[in-house]
Amino acid sequence: MKKLAVIAVAIAPVLAHAQDDLIRKIESNRSYTTINSAPKSKMEDNSKYKFHTLIDLERTTVKNQASSGTCWSYSTNSFLESEMMRMGKEPIELAPIFSARCVYAEKAENYVRMHGSVAWGDGGACHDVLNMYAKYGAIPAEVYTGLQYGTSKNKFAELQAILKSMLDAVVSNPNGKLTPSWKKAFNEVLDSYLGEVPTKFKWDNATYTPESFARLRVGIHPEDYVEMTSVTTAPYYKKTMLMVPDNWSFDRVYNVQMDDITDIIDNALNKGFTVAWATDVSEKYFSWKNGVAYVPEKDYEDMNDSEKKYMFDGPKYERVITPQMRQTAFDNYETTDDHGMHIVGLAADQNGRKYYKVKNSWGDKNDYKGYIYVSKNYVRYKTTAILLHKNGVPNTLRSKMNL
What count of other Cβ atoms lies within 10 Å of the Cβ of residue 316? Predict the structure, then answer.
């Protein structure tokens, strides 16, 4: 079993100079001015990014969710796999489509109960995986691929169209009274497209149910995990509703201050805990191809052609992020709950600015083979939720939240 790999990389001697002392001061400053961390000539030389690894935690291989909106399941199951590694267990790649299938069945009941007045689709939240794990267990990915419909990769458009049509027919209530038959029909469609869920299966010469596999082989305890968001519209360090459409289960999460988000992630990574991350990826300054996300000083619409062309050619200045700016972007739909990923490490660019190393589920066809480096300002600005083990949260914040 590999030991947890936390790799401390010595930043070049230039960090001893005054300009780099400023970097460290700015990075720890709580007044939301964590941007211009190097001289202008150095920040705008258009040299390619050079990332130096600071922390690199164990995880399983990069996956591809393909044509399905199941990022939340891929990312949070990846997170659970890293939790197994952290606990010294043999890493087993878990079936993200099993978690998703369980969610679809539960979500369908909510959709009908709410007369169709809630969101429907592939989407979900980090907590969905833990909730389904607690209720239904877990299955290895090899045992439940979810590819019953004859393709080698997920392709959910036809499945979701059929499911939505069925549910809307039920909600229309043509008989004047709902029958229980719709649930059976709904699950038979899931069986046809994703495959029947095994009640028992063999793994390593032993027989398990999904529940016993979760208990005996995965071994995590869902009650040990905590989910957080940051809004200015609710009391801090108390639970509040996660106000995103994909929170179909109406789960409540802890509300923390904006800078707490990165403080929590930093503390977790330093202690060997990875983090499941839900965020917005709709901005032009999130580049999957280039493997970098940051918050440029100018809005994309205000950039000239040269600035747009060279936006990802090397480190650039970042915008000052405030809680009010973050809340405004959330309120006006600039920040939406687009995507779930898995934060597995920390790196610094050639100017000393910190970025989180993030594992994605879009395959490995980008500049960093399935990973993306995300600046702390981007995380402060665009995070919709994080989920992690409560022991990864700083003690001061745990005390405020009574964790």
Answer: 21
Q: What is the pLDDT of residues 295-310, one digit of tens each?
A: 999 999 999 999 999 9
Strand-pairing partners, residue 340, are: 278
Token pair for residue 105?
């069945």
pLDDT band at 150 (very low <50, low <70, confident <90, very high): confident
Rounded Cα–Cα distance for residues 356 and 342 (Å): 10
Name the CA radius of gyration of the chain, rounded. 22
3-state secondary structure of 342: strand
How far is the C-alpha of 398 from the C-alpha of 237, rounded, in Å? 9
Query: Element (H or E) spanning 53, and its range?
Result: strand 52-56
pLDDT score recorded for residue 47: 73
Q: Is 328 helix (H, G, I), strand (E, B) or coil?
A: helix
Burial 217-227 (b: 16+ CB within 10 A, else e): bbebeeeebbb
Cα 294 to chain centroid, rounded: 17
Interval 17-46: pLDDT, tens: 333 343 333 333 333 333 333 444 344 444
Identify the DSSP state of 390: G
254, 400, 350: which is closest to 44 by C-alpha?
A: 350
> What's phi and psi for 280, nearest 5 deg?
-95, 135
Q: Which domains does the chain have, with CATH numbers?
A: 13-401 (3.90.70.10)
Q: Pull the structure tokens for residue 178.
A: 């709902």
Report the Cα–Cα distance between both ends of the chain, in Å, rounded.
31
Between these two residues, 2 and 211, which has the higher pLDDT value?
211
